[in-house]
């Protein structure tokens, strides 16, 4: 989940639609032009720049066949390549390795496993768990050369691990197909899959990982293996929900689906006053409570932020063509509703929220365009890198009205007292249909939250000054604890989506308990016996260490 924050929108709105890619991409560019129109680049004369000298390798002896693909900190592109979405408790690197093939990756891990050096693979760079801070002075294995998507004749999609969600969407959509993807377009598709993969189409097609058919990966010692329902099925089970623990996936194949409603989806955005928040919560809870659950085609995202600079907020939304009628400062409450079906059916749902809104907008767009228009066109602003984000999350069956409103009021007070965090922090709630997720049996994969995945609540705390980190961390931990109480969450157990987790939750909240822990520990010992992939919510190699 990525959140732009009100202040960052001012930079992102004019330019966020356009991405430049290398010639190695195999994504259908004609399809991109159909979606975004013709982009003309105007440029002056090329600048003459001095030759920059850097060393490919430092004091360590990499195998000669891949040494030219290793770069140290004197490389001109080092800072750009190692940039991450969040700098909070982030890993640090002294070298970058850029494999160009599976064989290169295999050679590198075979070599690194003979040293005491840490390593971390990066695709999108959006992993923000503070557990990553345990990886210091490491080798970054950057997978940008595996940035490709191809849709096959049988409707499956072959995806390289350097691919972002937006690139996956364009390729799959151009083929007249669809698949569950997350709301944030710049997240690495494979990275999100490893923790499960939630998204707007979960009600129809389940998790992103539920559509995974096979994966090719390299283990800690350089061994190349395939994981699928027929080949290494135990590993295939584990990589769908706990996949960061076992190896580096370099390519995967997914099932895709014929587009719903010919690929056209209804999207509407709303802005609400604080006084109407209780009505909004009641409507969402009522939709969750209908027999059969939330409509499988319906997806709702609620964002609540607070910027102490009222005129800055007004200026930002004026750029978006939105004239705010709110009295500011107050919580900025925005809801996005997406429906994968006809407009007249969608308006039955949008009509529930609309009477309470101070600003309303609706349109019907190709599903491939949602990240460009949803949330008043601000979603892509969340792709900015190199800002600290400390996030706490919890799953809830319903939104407890009293607790939620108290939390929003407390958040407003926190923002007023900590202006260094006010423009970069937010409360986020994602509410998706569950039918596609619950269509699979509980033991289908390592993902442990089927039946307990109705509302993903994230308390995303950013800041522009380190002075706000401690109060932000304390505020988010306190409210996460309140939301996680069974009487509030509606679940007997504490459930946290692994991709959104911090580092203080019990591992059972991310991975489940009982037989799941035994199976995961057995897999860890079989495929990563030295614990080389322990940087991201590590699975214990000994059962007693689960508690």
Automatic annotation (TrEMBL):
Superkingdom assignment: Eukaryota
Keyword set, alphabetical order: FAD, Flavoprotein, Oxidoreductase
Alphabetized GO MF terms: FAD binding; oxidoreductase activity
UniProt protein name: FAD-binding PCMH-type domain-containing protein
Cofactor(s) listed in the protein's UniProt record: FAD
PROSITE patterns, per database record: FAD_PCMH
InterPro entries assigned to the protein according to its UniProt record, in alphabetical order: FAD-bd_PCMH, FAD-bd_PCMH-like_sf, FAD-bd_PCMH_sub2, FAD-linked_Oxidoreductase, Oxid_FAD_bind_N
Species in which this protein is naturally found: Stachybotrys chartarum (strain CBS 109288 / IBT 7711) (Toxic black mold)
Transmembrane spans: none
Domain FAD-binding PCMH-type: 88-259
Family recorded in the similarity comment: Belongs to the oxygen-dependent FAD-linked oxidoreductase family.
Taxonomic path: Eukaryota, Fungi, Dikarya, Ascomycota, Pezizomycotina
């Amino acid at each position: 989940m990525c959140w732009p924050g009100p202040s960052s929108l001012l930079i992102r709105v004019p330019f966020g639609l356009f991405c430049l890619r290398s010639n190695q991409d195999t994504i259908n560019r004609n399809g991109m032009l159909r979606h975004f129109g013709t982009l003309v680049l105007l440029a002056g004369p090329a600048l003459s720049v001095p030759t920059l000298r850097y060393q490919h390798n430092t004091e360590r002896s990499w195998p000669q066949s891949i040494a030219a693909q290793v770069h140290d900190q004197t490389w001109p592109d080092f800072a750009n390549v190692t940039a991450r979405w969040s700098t909070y408790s982030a890993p640090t690197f002294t070298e970058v390795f850029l494999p160009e093939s599976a064989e290169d990756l295999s050679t590198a891990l075979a070599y690194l496993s003979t040293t005491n050096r840490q390593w971390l693979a990066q695709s999108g760079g959006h992993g923000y768990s503070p557990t990553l801070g345990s990886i210091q002075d490491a080798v970054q294995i950057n997978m940008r050369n595996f940035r490709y998507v191809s849709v096959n004749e049988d409707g499956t999609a072959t995806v390289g691990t350097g691919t972002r969600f937006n690139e996956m969407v364009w390729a799959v959509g151009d083929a007249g197909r669809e698949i569950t993807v997350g709301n944030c377009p710049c997240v690495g598709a494979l990275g999100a899959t490893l923790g499960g993969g939630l998204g707007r189409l979960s009600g129809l097609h389940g998790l992103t990982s539920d559509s995974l058919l096979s994966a090719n990966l390299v283990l800690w010692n350089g061994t190349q293996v395939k994981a699928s329902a027929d080949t290494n099925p135990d590993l295939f089970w584990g990589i769908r929900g706990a996949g960061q623990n076992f190896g580096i996936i370099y390519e995967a194949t997914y099932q895709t689906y014929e587009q719903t409603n010919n690929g056209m989806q209804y999207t509407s955005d709303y802005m609400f006053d604080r006084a109407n928040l209780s009505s909004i919560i009641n409507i969402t809870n009522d939709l969750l409570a209908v027999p059969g659950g939330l409509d499988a085609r319906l997806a709702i995202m609620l964002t609540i932020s607070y910027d102490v600079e009222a005129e800055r907020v007004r200026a930002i939304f004026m750029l978006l063509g939105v004239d705010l009628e709110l009295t500011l400062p107050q919580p900025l409450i925005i809801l996005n509703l997406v429906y994968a079906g006809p407009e007249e059916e969608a308006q039955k749902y949008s009509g529930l929220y609309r009477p309470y809104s101070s600003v309303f907008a609706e349109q019907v767009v190709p599903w491939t365009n949602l990240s460009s228009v949803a949330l008043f066109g601000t979603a892509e602003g969340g792709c900015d890198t190199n800002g600290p984000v400390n996030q706490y999350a919890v799953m809830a069956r319903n939104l407890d009205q009293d607790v939620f409103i108290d939390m929003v009021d407390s958040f407003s007070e926190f923002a007023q007292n900590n202006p260094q965090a006010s423009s970069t922090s937010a409360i986020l709630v994602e509410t998706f249909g569950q039918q596609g997720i619950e269509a699979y049996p509980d033991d289908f994969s390592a993902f442990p939250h089927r039946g307990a995945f109705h509302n993903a609540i994230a308390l995303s705390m950013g800041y522009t000054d380190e002075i706000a980190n401690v109060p932000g961390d304390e505020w988010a931990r306190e409210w996460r604890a309140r939301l996680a109480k069974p009487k509030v969450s509606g679940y007997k157990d504490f459930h946290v989506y692994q991709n959104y987790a911090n580092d203080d939750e019990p591992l059972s909240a991310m991975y489940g308990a009982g037989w799941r822990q035994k199976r995961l520990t057995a897999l860890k010992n079989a495929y990563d016996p030295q614990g080389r992939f322990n940087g991201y919510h590590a699975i214990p190699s000994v059962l007693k260490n689960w508690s």
